[in-house]
Amino acid sequence: MSEIYLPLHGGKAPYWLLKRMKGLAEQIVKVIVLEFGELEFLKRISDPIFFQSFSNVLGFDWNSSGTTTVLTGVLKSVLNKPEFEIRVAGGKGANALNTPEEIRKFAPELNVDGEMLIKFSRLSAKADNSALIDGYTLYHHAVFFTPKHFTVVQQGMNAEEKLARRYHWSVYETIPKLEDVHSGIISERIEREVVNMLSSISRDAVKTSLDIIKDRKFKEDYEKIFSVVKFGEKLMVPRKIDWKAVEKAYELQPEKFEDLLLIRGIGRETIRALALISDLVYNTEYDKQDPAKYCFAVGGKDGVPFPVRRDLYDQVLEFMNEVLKQTDLESFEKKRAFERLHKSLKI
What we know:
The strands form two sheets. Strands 1-3-4-5-6-8 form a six-stranded mixed beta sheet, with helices on both faces. It has a two-stranded antiparallel sheet with strand order 2-7. It has two domains: about 15-195 and about 290-345, no CATH class; about 195-280, no CATH class. By secondary structure, it is α+β, with helices and mostly antiparallel strands. The chain has 14 helices and eight strands. It is elongated, with a radius of gyration of 21 Å. Helix 8 (about 205-215) packs across helix 12. Strand 4 and strand 5 (about 165-170) form a beta hairpin.
């Protein structure tokens, strides 16, 4: 297997490459949809290994943060057409902010509940940005949806370390409970300081956090943890809390963690503080383990990657081989695609 990195790179893919990628991507997508259906395509997109391999097969031969943004842009161009019953909303930067408007535009074409998808979009972005605190800030967000199913692929950056991390969610029919939602997270390294309130291990800490908010204990408990954890220590107490948002949360009395996250102003500082209070004041621990499932390189002396799943790579190789065989590509282009596939998944 060739090593996969996600260094943070700027710039754009050249036009000649994008044009070529779109043509090949359309061929591959058509075969997958015709042979296996739209649901299978979403399942594949929710697989970090397939996503990475798809990008390599199309000719984006280097691994970087651009893998995510370029492939998403290519798929938007290919899929947002009448011949497909799959749509892609969102993208990088300003395009991510336009996700609600794009969902509203595309939803009638597939006869889907656009407002439900917009809520899922907001919730998934808020979850990976604020409830999974791993040192990365989202700058790319894309929702893939069919008439019945949807998923999200988003990417965060650690500007200080110049690294990116891509988050893949499972495929859903309805808005999921925010617990173990990821099908995979691709990262160059495992982070040591993480607050993961999306983990089933954090279930009791989430419940405690809701109780703290609803009982108006937050401010009092927030003061208590200063005597336990000082600024600058490993689990730093957040300096800024949006107390107006906390007051709003008290007034709304959220019954579910999803409802709390969707309140404007409830961000990572508030969630981190709630996690610390749950742990240090009420002895209810949250999950401190990095949930990244696919790590391909040791990112410094503190990085300890998970083992590479060779069986998953074999499955992707077999699947893509069959898909490429069925495309209507010319023999030379098909040969080049096979070579790129086998090179990208060589073990």
